[in-house]
Amino acid sequence: MLSKFPYLRQDFLASIVVFLVAVPLCVGVAVASGVPAELGLITGIVGGLVTGLMRGSSLQVSGPAAGLTVLVFEAVSEFGVATLGVIVLIAGLLQLAMGFLGIGRWFRAISVSVVEGMLCGIGLVIIAGQVYAAAGLKAPESGLDKIAGLPGMFADTLGSTRALMSLAIGAGTIAVIVLWKKLPKAVQTVPGALAAVVLATAATLAFSLPVATVQVEGLLGVIQPPGAEAFGELASPAIWGTIIAFALIASAESLFSAAAVDRLHNGPRTEYNKEMIAQGAGNTLCGLLGALPMTAVIVRSSANVAAGARTKASRVLHGVWLLLFAAAMPWALALIPIPALAGILVHAGWKLIPFRQITALWRAHKGEALILVVTAVSIVAVNMFEGVLIGLALSVVKTAWEASHVRLDVIDKGAGPIQAYLSGNATFLRLPKILDSLENLPQDRPVELDLKGLHHLDHACRTALESWAERHSATGTEPVKVMEPEESPQSEKVAAV
């Protein structure tokens, strides 16, 4: 057997570590999303047993992710838990279609600033929302209201012993996770998030603290395949924006995670289209079961690599352990205090905010840093889908503006024609600047317009330059002499390829 599975020992040990990391995160994401805790475990099980078996990224682990918490909560609030399965199902089918059509690799072309901004905005909303949950209070609906209401929330907490105890459990959970990394390596074999939940649960039971705990319905009790009424919601145009957001954001997060995981090990590289198909298959099944959407999760994936995993067997086994836990020990979920789960998600949200990247981007590429910040602020102010669209639009505008860089050099020797040299890329975006400079040239002098330095001249610019030349020549001066750009045989050959 060992000859067939030479890395069984390494993968077995890694699967235990990933399982211990996954349990509190699966439960925490589900509770924060406004759905039963077991639905998070179901998504984790599907991520291990289904997506884990498929080709794509061999060491990447999938399951419910904090990055989709905000979007899922918005979808559940607007359409209800019963419709969540339809949304996830159709999003999974879209992912399958994109994978089979070979679109997976194109996600690598999405601006990193937009992705970092998306994660930053999600992190801010998660932190703001889960602080309320840690205090046992209901959070406002919008991201701006969550942040604006924090001072009042803390004021209300100070006047309530129950809220203070609840907030103390959440704060203690965060403290344990942060300090756990400073303990000896042998102790750190137990994941910090799991240790924090166990300690918070023990403290709640030992002192009989009046804090809310997870509501348990049983694994089979929460599985609700979408019915005809849920499919009827597809007639509403509003739901399709949510479906597309699920598909695109889950795909982007998974494929960017795959690229990050590839940098952590020397094994087989990710096959992006096949990974997209694997994610689509997992989400399709999650939708049929009425569970949470799935993405690749960098926390679990990096834990998998760090624990010594060598093949996909580790992530499949982690799905087995999740299934056994959910089936044999559901009572354990009912003991977990919700403030502890809120603390885990506050810490996860904090890690989503790319502080170092923002600083580095501001020093090297202020425009990219601006895109990151605008994307994050838009997600907080509006919602995740529209915030990402704003970031993408801004990224496209910035790229188009930079690609249209053009330079106009005017040489006037006092006698003879004025020489004007255009170089770079002449597009309609820079047309006002070009025309302003040309129209300021003396009307009574001949002009030579040299376009040989242009790499690109679009139709709008060509037409405008021809019109300017006609107007300048109509004043009685010599016709404007235009020297067209020449394409070398090599450039023509490259263009043909």
From TrEMBL:
It is a multi-pass membrane protein. Residues 474-497 are annotated as: Disordered. It holds the Pfam family Sulfate_transp. It is found in: Membrane. The chain crosses the membrane at residues 12-32, 79-103, 115-135, 163-180, 192-214, 234-256, 277-299, 319-348, 369-394. Residues 8-375 form the SLC26A/SulP transporter domain. Keywords: Membrane, Transmembrane, Transmembrane helix. InterPro entries: SLC26A/SulP_dom, SLC26A/SulP_fam. Its main location: membrane. This is Sulfate transporter family protein. It comes from Streptomyces djakartensis. The lineage of its organism: Bacteria, Bacillati, Actinomycetota, Actinomycetes, Kitasatosporales.
